[in-house]
Each structure stands twice: as C-alpha cells, then as structure tokens.
Design goal:
Helices cover about 75% and strands about 0% of the residues. The protein has about 500 residues and is an all-alpha fold. It has a two-stranded antiparallel ribbon with strand order 1-2.
C-alpha cells in the first residue's frame, strides 16, 4: 500500500510539473517565473519553501527530548523572518530590482563583492539540501525498507526531474499540491492524537501530568546565560534567514511589492500554525508511556503506528514525503540560480569574450541544479544529523552576510567595496574558527565566563564593527586625498 501510494504521488507530481511548465526563453522566466505570481501562489511558495524536514521531523524529535526550549529557531524564528520580510525586505528588493543576493552585492561593491558573497552563501546550502535528503532516505528506509544510499540517490533524482523541467513555475504548482497533502496528513494524525487525550485531559481540563515538567520550560536550565541563548537562537532563525536566496526569489517572483508583502505576512501566520503541529507531536511523545530517547523520525512514526490505521498511516507517509520534497526542490533551485548567474556566467562570458545567449543561460541553470543536488547528496552521506546540518547553515548567514546585506539595502551613502568585502570575510573567518573549535559562545573558553554571547550573534556584532571601522578609514583616506588635491591646485593653479 505504501509503495503504490508513493508511486501514484510521484506520477501526479510529474504530471503537474510537466503540465504547468512552459518554455523558458530567459533566465527571468526560469528563476523568477516571469514575476507573475499572485498572493495565493506566492504564499504557498513561501510556506512550502521553509516547511521541511527540520520543521516537522527533527523538531518533533527535539521537543520530545528537551521540550519547548528548542522552538526559538524554528518555528518562532522563521515565522518572525517571514513577517520581517514583508515589512522590511519586499519593498527594498523591488527598488533594487535584483534576482539573487549576488546581484545586490554586485550593484554595491562590484565583482569582488558579488563573488565573495556567492562563495560564502552557496556552500551553506549543501547542508540544507543534505538535511532534506537524509530525512527522506530515512523515511523510505523506515516505511519501505529501502537502503539509505538508494534512498539518497532516488530522492535526488526525483528532485532533479521536478526542478530542471519548467523551473520556478512548475516548482510553485507542485508545491501547491504538496502543501495540500501536508495539511491533510498533519490534520489526520493531529486529530487522532488529540482524541487520544495523551497531551490534554478533557475530563479534568488540564495538561497531562505524565509529560516532564521541564519540557514546558522555554529556556535551557543548563545555560549560563539563558536570555542571551534565546536571543541568539531567535536571531539565527529570523535575521539570519533574511538574506536566504529562496526567500529573495519568492519575493521577487510576485507580480509587485504589495503582493509580496501580503504573501509574506500570510505565510508567517500559516507557518507558525503549521510549526505548532510538530511541537504538539513532540510533547505527546514525551509522555512516560513512550520509550525513553528518540531516534530520527521516531516521534512521528511511532505516533502514527499507535493511533492510525494503515490507510491513514499511508496518508501521513505521503504528507511527510510532500513536506520534504517541497523544501528539497526549492533548496536546490535557489542556490543553483546564484551559482549560475553570479559565479559561472561572468567567468564563461569573459572567457568567450561575449555574453551568453538566454538559451545557454537556462541550460547553465539546469546544470547547476544537478550540481547542487550532487553536492548535497555527497554531504548527506557523511553521517551528520539533519538538525546539526540545518543549524550550521542558518548560523553561517547570520555571521557573515546579514550585516552587509542590511547595510546595502538601507544605505543612504554608498558603502565602499573594501568595507563590504572585509565584513563578509571577517564574519566567515570567525564562524569557521568557532565551528572547528566546537565553541558555542563567542571566544569559547576565553570569554564565555565574562560575556557568554552565542557565537553567531557575536560574529554578526563583530562584522558590524568591521564594517563601521573600514568604512570610516576609507572615508578618511578619501577626504585626505581630496584635501591634498586641493592644496596642489592652490599651489599650481
């Protein structure tokens, strides 16, 4: 039954993707769907972009293990990010008229800023793609007995077929269908668990006492500075995701700035509601009647086996597959567009001494999608957990890209190219230092007792300081140069 349902789902997705695709005569049509999305399509695209394996599967596992203290990045942080995107990002992006974040840095700091930004942002998506591939392959192993390696290969192939055909237009229509399946599956399991009374006792009108009291705490009891830890996690999920390529593409795919703004607000509310579902699952699973400790996918699968008959388990299985596929397709499409437009296309054009044709650019986009999926699959085979991979991706953007990104969007006076590039390099260097050393706080053992700031938040603060210092030095040099020129003209009129 599971195999038949999966085959039917994939067949329907391929038909919808093929029927909705149209010949892409330009990169704008392939990447931004010709900027024709209305409020409904834009909202569904934004939700499907973010609601993936980490949102449903790993979040429910983490909640069952540690409680509510892990909800600050997802769903609270990402929901806040979508709201901030509607109020702040959408109108500014439409003023700048860009397709990717690399275009924004190209306008502000030239080719060097564009290339450095691209080389920082694109590799961070390998972990995001790998997280979805890991979750989907584990799901196929749990329900169908498919080996992990074959699951990784098969998942990557399905995503490639859905992406390379019609580009963003077909992906958006596929995501609408997937979102409907997600809502159906989550509702089926949620209603069954709610009726079971495992979380809430309707007779006594109180929460179940079998859930550990520590699971209701919003802060970690072991943290040396819990408030700062919460602020850091919320910043990673919200501010750290503002320069995400897929968010920029979904906003720019809308037909105008007002449509994009409204879609972001709606997506923020719906995402928060959907994000409460895995929290609900995780709290239910933490009851004493369940086994201690959780493995990947154990929460959702165990609840489904206990509360659902086999036909309804099939519905939930398809919902989980839809959840992962919706994010996987966007996760491959977004960075591939940046790789093609901002990295490879200028290099090839300079080598050929002429710009590429639009057909060649679209072909390049398709090849870049395949490359991103290959790299994500390679990283997925390294064995790192999906939760760690996604968390690391979030942190990279906050540390190195957020500060110059916001500075460029809100600039009144032009920032120097040196200031922008120095800021990105400083934030990236600090992030890698903390990553390799395993430090959770800024400065590790040297400063954690003095000022225990989460390292991503601290790195963003250091990046802002570098931006201000280098910009000040450049302005001082420019002013001194103007003064010296004025003196020379006075001496030699």
């Amino acid at each position: 039954m599971f195999v038949i349902a999966l085959v039917l789902l994939l067949a329907i997705l391929f038909v919808v993707g093929f029927a909705s695709s149209r010949p892409s005569n330009s990169v704008n049509e392939f990447v931004l769907a010709g900027q024709q999305f209305g409020i409904g399509m834009s909202t569904c695209s934004l939700i499907a972009t973010w609601y993936g394996a980490e949102s449903l599967l790993t979040l429910s596992d983490e909640v069952s293990r540690v409680g509510l203290q892990c909800i600050w990045i997802d769903p609270l942080g990402i929901s806040l990010c979508l709201a901030m995107a509607g109020g702040f990002l959408a109108p500014l992006l439409y003023r700048k008229n860009v397709s990717t974040i690399g275009d924004l840095f190209l306008q502000s700091s030239g080719r060097s800023g564009e290339l450095i930004c691209s080389l920082i942002v694109i590799p961070s998506y390998f972990g995001w793609i790998a997280a979805q591939l890991i979750a989907l392959s584990l799901l196929l192993q749990a329900y169908l007995g498919i080996p992990i390696l074959y699951g990784l290969i098969g998942s990557g192939c399905v995503a490639a077929i859905l992406c390379v055909g019609g580009g963003n237009t077909s992906i958006a229509w596929v995501n609408v269908l997937l979102l409907a399946i997600i809502g159906l599956g989550l509702s089926v399991l949620g209603w069954a668990v709610l009726k079971g009374g495992i979380l809430f006792d309707f007779e006594r009108w109180q929460f179940s006492k079998s859930i550990p009291s520590t699971h209701w705490s919003l802060m970690s009891p072991d943290a040396s500075a819990p408030i700062l830890e919460v602020i850091g996690a919320l910043a990673v999920g919200s501010i750290g995701n503002l320069p995400a390529i897929e968010l920029i593409q979904r906003i720019r795919s809308a037909k105008d700035a007002n449509t994009a703004r409204t879609a972001c607000y709606l997506a923020s509310g719906v995402y928060l509601a959907l994000g409460c579902v895995p929290i609900f699952y995780g709290l239910c699973f933490s009851s004493h009647q369940w086994s201690n400790g959780t493995d990947q996918l154990q929460v959702v699968s165990e609840l489904a086996k206990y509360y659902l008959s086999e036909p309804f388990q099939v519905v939930l299985f398809l919902a989980i597959v839809a959840t992962i596929l919706s994010t996987l397709t966007t996760a491959a499409m977004a960075p591939a567009s940046m790789l093609g437009i901002n990295v490879i296309e200028p290099i090839v054009g300079r080598w050929l001494r002429r710009p590429l044709t639009e057909q060649a650019k679209v072909l390049l986009q398709r090849l870049c999608i395949l490359w991103m999926l290959f790299m994500g699959g390679w990283l997925a085979s390294s064995g790192k957990s999906a939760f760690e991979l996604v968390r690391d991706c979030y942190g990279m953007l906050l540390s190195s890209i957020v500060v110059p990104f916001i500075a460029i969007l809100t600039q009144r006076k032009p920032w120097s190219s040196r200031a922008i590039t120095s800021t990105m390099l400083a934030g990236t260097a600090l992030w890698w230092l903390h990553f390799f050393m395993g430090w959770e706080q800024l400065g590790g053992p040297f400063f954690e007792d003095l000022l225990p700031i989460p390292h991503e938040l601290g790195e963003a603060m250091v990046s802002a300081l570098v931006l201000w210092l280098v910009q000040g030095l450049d302005r001082t040099r420019a002013s001194d140069k103007e003064d010296s020129i004025g003196i020379d003209l006075a001496r030699h009129p």
